[in-house]
Amino acid sequence: MAGGSFAQGVAKERAAQYKGRVTAYVVITCIIAAVGGSLFGYDIGISGGVTSMDEFLQEFFPSVYRSKEHAHESNYCKYNNQGLALFTSSLYLAGLVASLLASPVTRKYGRRASIIGGGISFLIGSALNAAAVNLAMLLLGRIMLGVGIGFGNQAIPVYLSEMAPTHLRGGLNMMFQVATTFGIFTANMVNYGTQKLHPWGWRLSLGLASIPAILMTLGGIFLPDTPNSLIERGSKEKGRKLLEKIRGTKDVDAEFQDIVDASEYANSIEHPFRNMLEKRNRPELVMSILMPAFQILTGINSILFYAPVLFDSMGFGRNASLYSSALTGGVLASSTFISIATVDRLGRRALLISGGIQMITCQVIVAIILGLKFGENQELSKSYSIVVVVVICLFVVAFGWSWGPLGWTVPSEIFPLEIRSAGQSVTVAVNLLFTFIIAQIFLSLLCSFRYGIFLFFAGWITIMTIVVFLFLPETKGVPIEEMVFLWRKHWFWKRIVPQFPEADATDV
User: Fold this and answer.
1) What is the pLDDT of residues 46-103, one digit of tens each?
2) With contact defined as beta carbons under 8 Å apart, do 49 and 191 qualify?
3) Mean pLDDT of all residues in 186-214
């Protein structure tokens, strides 16, 4: 294994020598690549709406439909069915496996290959879902959608981080989250319209997923690969020309040399997943696990997956519940722009901590209202229903400008090149694992915990806010190839990682 000057990727800090500007080419490229995030968002938004449609339930989950129609059923337990939960969660289990398989593809064949492969798989899955005539066909379609999401989520954040200039990396990387939230909002609006189309509205909702899949596939075909990927795969001259093009200058010697150094070291690593376990990569490994896990433990996916179900359980009625979930989707989409405008000025830590505090407050308020005013077989009054929707929207706003985008941005920018694809795979796999777990158990938790479900998530948000305050250094303005120096200076991580490039690379 290589050591010496290549240990930890680069041997010296050259950030001050980086030249270049924001070019229209790089902005357009990042926007096209980020469209892949709409796949993830569309599915998050579409699942909850479809599972609340009577025709869908009658065809695939008749027991849930009968339970929903029984007035004596507990408000919190109307939809408690593991088969219904599996319809939602199966996609994320498939995505988990696919994200790990995507790592060697992304590394050996480039970021574009994974983006294209993900788009094609998602297109196949959307077609199977729209045409499903039995539960097996429905679940097969969900699995293909999961493969598409696994590949897309693994490659796109890395692509964006590598293409973006250092001083705007946070904002451009968040185009992925913008596309995700736009996909959620679009799905909610589609559900609101298709639930009136009897009896095939649910098929249209699922089939329209083909549109973002086509956009992602075409985007991958026409996009260039990143300079980092080209250089890592031996095309140095081509990589330098692309770097000059996206930076708008020929004076890219410092950044080019950092990428070359990192690439030479990356190519000496035969087993990047095993390399992640080394002591010098401990901070990145820990954050690649904690950040995506905490992002899901905010409870946001439960609200977005099951917003129509959740609001219907609170007595809003089918139309009102779909309208309320569409509102939360719109709020999430718009709030992401707050983060884009502030992340490269205020920094990642400030947004994560302040967003966490706001989310905790909102979760506690909702729990109190439901605990006091929403009992068994009792509907919320109109005034309290409005308050609940407003507070949930405030929760979604906080997530939208903090943990939503930064849960993807921070992990994608901290890995050295030699473990970047593997690290992003771990991030995506952990995200999808926790998404699968929460999606599978949420309806049961809602039935068991009732209003306490919001306190459950508030507790996790408290823990993750403290972890960020203590253990996550600020990555604002730090070149992606020089992140290692942050850990060497951090009050806690400097006790773990080697302080000098010459440190033994095999020290564990």
Assistant:
1) 887 788 788 888 888 888 787 766 655 566 676 667 777 788 788 888 988 898 888 8
2) yes
3) 88
Answer whether the bond into residue 199 is a cis peptide, omega within 30°.
Answer: yes
Q: 142, 95 in Cβ contact below 8 A?
A: no
Q: Which domains does the chain have, with CATH numbers?
A: 20-495 (1.20.1250.20)
Distance CA 81, CA 277 (A): 39
Q: How many angstroms from the chain centroid is the CA of residue 365? A: 26
* CA–CA dist 500, 306 (Å, integer): 49
pLDDT tens per residue across span 377-429:
566 677 777 788 888 889 999 998 899 889 988 988 888 877 887 888 889 88
pLDDT score for 9: 46
Separation of CA 349 from chain center = 18
What is the spatial distance between Cα 461 and Cα 19, in angstroms, rounded to a whole number? Answer: 39
Q: Which amino acid is at 225?
A: D
CB proximity list for 285: less than 8 A, separation 6 or greater? 276, 277, 423, 426
| Average pLDDT over every residue of 117-128 | 94
Instruction: Please state, in angstroms and rounded to a whole number, the distance separating the CA atoms of residues 17 and 482.
Output: 13
Three-state DSSP at 5 gives: helix
pTM of the predicted model as reported, rounded to 2 decimal places:
0.74
Task: Give the gyration radius of the chain's Cα atoms.
Answer: 23
Q: How far apart are CA 97 and CA 428, in angstroms?
A: 10
H or E, element range at 138: helix 135-163
C-alpha separations of 395 from 328, 354, 461 in Å: 9, 12, 12
CA separation, residue 330 to residues 109, 115, 298, 336, 387 (Å): 37, 26, 19, 10, 17
Cα 313 to Cα 453: distance, rounded to the nearest angstrom: 14
